[in-house]
Design a protein that fits this description.
5 helices, Glutaredoxin, single chain, 9 strands, 2 domains, alpha/beta, five-stranded mixed beta sheet, 172 residues
Length: 172
């Protein structure tokens, strides 16, 4: 009798662990995946005039246009990422930062596939558009922004980073 109740106890514990793990995995994966599965970022070079107008980017500056939706769980991770990059950002000459809600961009006719998103304009040219980092935690170790700012990532034109798996909330 005692052996049977122990088996039931272990079986229930195992079932609870399995169910909890599955639910946590599913919840964690709901905000992780390809940043721009519909490839909406490809529109950004054509939307440069609207980006320049909205941001008032100047010819001699580097502008970081932060696109945050406060209701997205990943926004807090991206803000933490930015806090860790703060010393480097402050040391950048002619760097200006602007934070906007995704709705402001969509109202200006600019595609917002997911948030949090960063758009980097340098000398009124689109340099980068996409997630802050690759990976599910948007941490400094997986930073994409750092390489863009240090000009370590050499691309032939604008880097429209659609396919990177990242922490993101897809726009509707």
């Amino acid at each position: 009798m005692k052996l049977t109740s122990q088996r039931w106890g272990w079986s229930l514990l195992l079932l609870w662990l399995l169910t909890s793990s599955l639910l946590l995995f599913r919840f964690g994966q709901s905000d992780f995946g390809e940043f721009d599965p519909q490839l909406q970022l490809k529109q950004h070079p054509f939307q440069l005039p609207a980006l320049l107008k909205l941001s008032a980017a100047k010819p001699s500056e580097t502008l970081l246009l932060h696109v945050f939706d406060p209701s997205c769980r990943c926004a807090a991770l991206a803000e933490n990422h930015l806090q860790q990059l703060k010393p480097q950002l402050l040391s950048q000459p002619r760097l200006r930062q602007l934070t906007v809600h995704p709705q402001q961009l969509t109202e200006a006719g600019i595609a917002v596939p997911a948030t949090p998103m960063i758009i980097v304009l340098r000398n009124q040219q689109l340099i980068y558009s996409g997630p802050y980092a690759s990976g599910p935690a948007c941490n400094i170790g997986d930073s994409l922004l750092e390489g863009v700012l240090q000009q370590k990532l050499q691309t032939p034109a604008s880097w429209l980073n659609s396919e990177t798996p990242a922490c993101r909330c897809l726009s509707n």
